[in-house]
User: Which sequence fits this backbone?
């Protein structure tokens, strides 16, 4: 018995020495531009990204090929189940085995960081639309990444400064008690105070939480004009629902969501969500081109309208294809991204914009307020655009991010 | 289950085990030619995790519902020590494993005082405490996790930055862990453990310090779960909250059940089935969870002993039919 186990041990040890040669690096483009939509297909973020993002990517390819001659372009998709190891596994397999050239979308910041790192290692392209982490263009920035649609810094600052400008001077924060919530609260509080507002108090709730009543009552009792919800996902939905039960908005206080999507409003219903104020990068009912896109999108997606994340996927894929065509090759990821940064962006959904050296895509944002039920005229007619945040002030200044690519 | 242990304790069973294991390792040595190495590494990490879990439930009869705390926390520790403190790869893995062992000792001392569902609940509660600690502690990076953990050369010599070379390291770690478990099961210690599983009161009456045996088994299981977690952190170069959630504790139960609880190779098969399914079905989106649920239901309904358990049972029934009539019939299960 002993000799046998020793033999096995020796075998394994010998194996250690054999396998030291690494993988050969990626080959030249294989004649196909392969786009991988990696997002949540089944969980919390499936509505705001999911199959809708796949549709958006395919639509971008279709529109691109209508406008000019194009070679073979394939779109594949995968579910990262919001788990970084699954997402990283899919990304590695796509790059190593299935010759995917570019990954797009990818909500959930932990997955986005993992994919960002792998993309850099393999010299491919990562266009993030779904994740909010502003560190993607800060300490984790990469020459292979463009962060397209929004980030938490932009949403917190946009919502914070626009509401203070409108007269919402005193704030009370309802914060999820973990790193993400703290960061959101800190960023928003900083801009509120800079604009001359005042933070009168804050309460931290456990993450995840079901019962917000005691926290909401404290917020109500604070008499602050604005209650900032420094949380996300189910916590935001639950706190808004329960705030509606306490009649907080009807009582004259304003709810400011720091990370809210139109699908959240849809899930809550206008009766519950009315008066909620937050920042969007894109809203379907703002131009004819957007409305036409939304109509087509809804027809293909069970009547759901596109979110800013899905619109961002369209816009990102479109610009990527333009850059690849200008370059004539998709083989070198860093070169493609450099080309994307060099060319100004212009597409029917996001209009004109630019991409900064740190990989941040720059465009206008808008502050929206959720309509009252009687103001809504049709399906998904949810937002009133109350202010536009010009591109120049919408995103974190280049020097403050701490990105190593910025000299 | 009774017959499994009786049979496995015999010399023939052991030889069969080792031959199967040798074939398995030989197959795994050439597997990267056909299968993507990162997927294989993931399977191996989870297989070791499930084997460690199986040591506790399959042989000790202790259902822990908090094994993710050892798996996930060891991943954090090895990730942090390698990335921030600049530990070498082998030291990082050792650090993660050692911390898991210490955590296992603390959790074990508290949990083994209770039996059955109370034991499971105590481990679950402790695992949730570890989860909230990981959520709040600044060193874990919150929900972003620890990312970009470097793959430094092993012992300063062997380059493991390539997936293929790392695969053989992971295979060696897995083989070592598996042999430790196999040795434990077939040692006198393992015999006592099985005796405790079958009838704790009788083991006490025979003069065994039952609590001490359970504690040692618990710590050993936690240590190996930690080894699996620390290795996984290295493979994916990240450590995240997913690995410490209670869902992960549930997933390892699922792997063990699908493969065959209380069989030596069951957890490996179970881990392979679940991991491969999660990876290949990613293109099917929301159907992954449905498929996973269906497979679980089918396993429970159709072959309750698990895949390997069922194969073993069939083989044994054949063997029993061949043997002379009048012998003691094998227990059905």
Assistant:
């Amino acid at each position: 018995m002993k000799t046998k186990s020793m033999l096995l041990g020796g075998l394994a040890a010998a194996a250690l020495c054999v396998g030291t040669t690494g993988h050969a690096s990626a080959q030249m483009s294989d004649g196909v531009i392969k786009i991988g939509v990696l997002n949540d297909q089944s969980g919390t973020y499936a509505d705001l990204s999911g199959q809708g993002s796949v549709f958006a990517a395919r639509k971008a390819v279709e529109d691109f090929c209508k406008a000019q001659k194009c070679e073979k372009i394939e779109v594949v998709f995968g579910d990262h189940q919001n788990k970084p190891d699954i997402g990283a596994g899919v990304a590695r397999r796509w790059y190593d085995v299935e010759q995917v050239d570019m990954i797009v979308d990818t909500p959930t910041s932990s997955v986005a960081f993992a994919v960002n790192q792998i993309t850099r290692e393999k010299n491919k392209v990562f266009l993030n639309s779904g994740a909010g982490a502003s560190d993607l263009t800060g300490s984790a920035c990469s020459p292979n990444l463009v962060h397209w649609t929004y980030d938490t810094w932009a949403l917190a600052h946009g919502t914070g400064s626009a509401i203070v400008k409108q007269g919402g001077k005193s704030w009370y924060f309802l914060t999820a008690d973990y790193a993400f919530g703290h960061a959101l609260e800190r960023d928003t509080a900083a801009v509120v105070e800079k604009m001359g507002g005042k933070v009168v108090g804050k309460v931290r709730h456990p993450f995840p939480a079901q019962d917000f009543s005691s926290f909401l009552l404290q917020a109500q009792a604070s008499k602050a004009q604005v209650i900032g919800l420094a949380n996300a996902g189910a916590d935001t939905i639950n706190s808004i629902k329960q705030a509606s039960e306490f009649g907080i908005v009807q009582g004259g206080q304003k709810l400011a969501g720091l990370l809210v999507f139109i699908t959240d409003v849809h899930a809550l219903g206008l009766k519950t969500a009315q008066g909620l104020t937050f920042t969007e990068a894109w809203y379907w009912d703002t131009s004819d081109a957007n409305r036409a896109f939304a109509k087509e999108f809804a027809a293909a997606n069970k009547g759901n309208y596109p979110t800013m994340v899905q619109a961002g996927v369209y816009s990102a894929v479109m610009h990527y294809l333009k850059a690849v065509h200008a370059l004539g090759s998709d083989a070198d990821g860093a070169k493609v991204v450099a080309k994307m940064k060099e060319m100004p962006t212009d597409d029917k959904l996001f209009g004109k914009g630019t991409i900064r050296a740190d990989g941040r895509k720059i465009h206008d944002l808008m502050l929206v307020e959720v309509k009252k039920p009687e103001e809504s005229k049709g399906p998904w007619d949810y937002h009133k655009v109350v202010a536009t945040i010009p591109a120049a002030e919408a995103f974190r200044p280049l020097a403050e991010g701490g990105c190593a690519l910025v000299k | 289950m009774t017959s499994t242990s009786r049979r496995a304790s015999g010399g023939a069973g052991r030889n069969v085990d080792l031959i199967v294991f040798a074939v398995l390792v030989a197959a795994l040595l050439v597997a990267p030619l056909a299968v993507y190495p990162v997927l294989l590494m993931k399977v191996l990490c989870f297989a070791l995790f499930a084997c460690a879990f199986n040591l506790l439930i399959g042989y000790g009869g202790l259902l822990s519902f908090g094994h993710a705390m050892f798996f996930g926390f060891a991943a954090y520790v090895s990730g942090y020590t390698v990335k921030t403190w600049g530990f070498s790869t082998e030291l990082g893995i050792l650090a993660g494993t050692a911390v898991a062992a210490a955590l296992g000792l603390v959790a074990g001392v508290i949990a083994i005082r209770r039996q059955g569902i109370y034991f499971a609940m105590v481990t679950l509660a402790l695992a949730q405490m570890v989860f909230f600690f990981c959520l709040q502690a600044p060193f874990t990076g919150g929900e972003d996790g620890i990312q970009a953990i470097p793959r430094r050369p092993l012992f300063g010599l062997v380059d493991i930055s390539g997936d293929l070379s790392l695969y053989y390291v992971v295979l060696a770690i897995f083989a070592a862990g598996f042999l430790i478990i196999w040795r434990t099961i077939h040692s006198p210690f393992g015999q006592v453990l099985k005796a405790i599983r079958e009838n704790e009161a009788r083991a006490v009456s025979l003069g065994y310090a039952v609590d001490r045996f359970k504690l040692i088994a618990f710590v050993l299981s936690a240590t190996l779960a930690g080894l699996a977690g620390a290795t996984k952190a290295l493979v994916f170069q990240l450590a995240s909250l997913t690995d410490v959630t209670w869902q992960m504790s549930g997933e390892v139960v699922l792997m063990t059940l699908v493969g065959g609880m209380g069989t030596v190779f069951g957890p490996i098969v179970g881990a392979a089935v679940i991991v491969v399914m999660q990876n290949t079905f990613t293109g099917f989106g929301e159907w992954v969870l449905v498929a996973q649920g269906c497979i679980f239901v089918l396993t429970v309904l159709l072959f309750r002993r698990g895949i390997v358990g069922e194969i073993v049972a069939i083989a044994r029934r054949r063997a029993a039919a061949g043997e002379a009539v009048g012998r003691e019939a094998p227990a059905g299960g």
Remarks:
- The first strand of chain A starts at residue 32 and ends at 39.
- Residues 32-150+287-359 of chain A form a domain with the Rossmann fold fold (CATH 3.40.50.2300).
- Chain A has two domains: 32-150+287-359, 153-280+365-392.
- Residues 1-28 of chain A have pLDDT under 50 and may be disordered.
